[in-house]
Structure formats: structure tokens, C-alpha cells
Specification:
Length: 252
Amino acid sequence: YEVPLDRDVRDVVVTRLFMSKVYGGSPQETFPRVAQNFLRVHHMDDFMYLNLDMNPHAPQVPGAPGLFFDADESIDQFSKIRRVFSRIGSSQWEYMGQYEIKPVASLTMEEWNEQRSTVRLVWASKLSTTGWGVPCRGVMHLYEQLGRKPTKREVKEALQSGNQFKNVSREQIAEGFLKGWVTMAVWTMKCVGYDVDFQRELVTEYVNWTPPDEPKRLATPQRGRKRKREEHRALDEDDLIYHPRGTKTRPI
């Protein structure tokens, strides 16, 4: 999609903190919920933020196509066009355009293994610790318990039990992807528009925006504290920046 905007305006980037404070929503979520007080001002609830650590084939140039990965095939966020931002550098988020997102076949084991090791590590880490990783952990738990692929009924009953399956480790999930026990769902991303007025507004707002002061923290003794949590619990938006090359069977 050809963006009708000069590059010096098109390529201005912002931070997630700015977007959260000015347009609303969590500064961490892919699909942040925007509070009513923000919606009454700008009427936009279609934001989608893609981190290249987990979505290496996300658009990196405004108007370009891309792929979206998610471990949950039943994700229902794509009934409407999405206002997509990609993190193209450390704390640098760029508006890519308005995207139509459609499901395609999940990655094969071979395609998954073609992904960079950092991508596979981040996914295994996040799925082993987050609330949205419970379905994946549940499937892995059942595979280990049953010695076979669980039925949809067995998975449903396991998830309804309230078990968080915290016994499933990052290493087990990584192995599950290698064996094909769990797979990565894929969606195509096609740019169908670009909100020129929105990007111009972003530029103006960002230039005039003053970040809030960070709250002062009192120093506290650290003795007796457990060794800091594993690295994967501390991964954030500024970790593991790299440039993707696509896959052999799904070129960008």
C-alpha cells in the first residue's frame, strides 16, 4: 500500500508510554483496551502493537504486508480493521497503517524451526509463565499425562478445571513445538489504508508531549531476597531487537 505522506512525517516514531498516556490502554498489551475517557476524545479502539521479538514478520515499513503469530487459534480480535504499530527499535514504535488480518494455515514444524532461536525462546518463555499461556500449558500437560494427543473434549475439561499448569516449563513447551504437539497459528496482514491525519496528529502531539516524572523509590535492603527470577520473566519491549528474514515458504 502506497502511503500518501512525506517520509519525514511518515517515519516519526513514538513510545508506548506516550501512546498509553495520550491515547489510552496498557503500554504492554498487543490489543489494549481503551478507557471511555480516552474514547470520548479520539474515538479509536482499534490499536494493535506488534513486538518483533514475538512477531518477526510484522510490517516494518508503513503499508507493507506482514504475518502475525499467536499460540491461540481462536483469537477473535480481527473482526475489524486494526490500527497497527510495530516496534522498529528500542522504545521506537511506528504507525504502519490500517490492516486487514486473516487466518491461514499454522506454521509447520519445519517453518517453526526456521525461526530465529530468540523468537522461539521468547515464545516458550512467555507461554510458560503468562495467563494467556494456560491453554498451551494445558495441552502440554495432557500430552505428558496421556502419552498421546488429547481430544478437544479432554483439553476443554482440563482448562475448565481452573488448573494453571504451572508445572509445565519453558523447556517442555519448546520441546512441544519441536515435536509438533503445539503449533503457532498465523494470520496474514494486508494494509488497506493509512490514516494520514492520525499520523500528523501523532507528530504534533509527540513533539509537544512531556513524559511524566518517574516516582522516586526508597532504597530497601536486598539481603535475604531470592535470586532474581529467570531471564524470561524479565523480558520486556526493549530486549532482543533484530531484523527478520522471513521463511522459505512464507516470504514477506
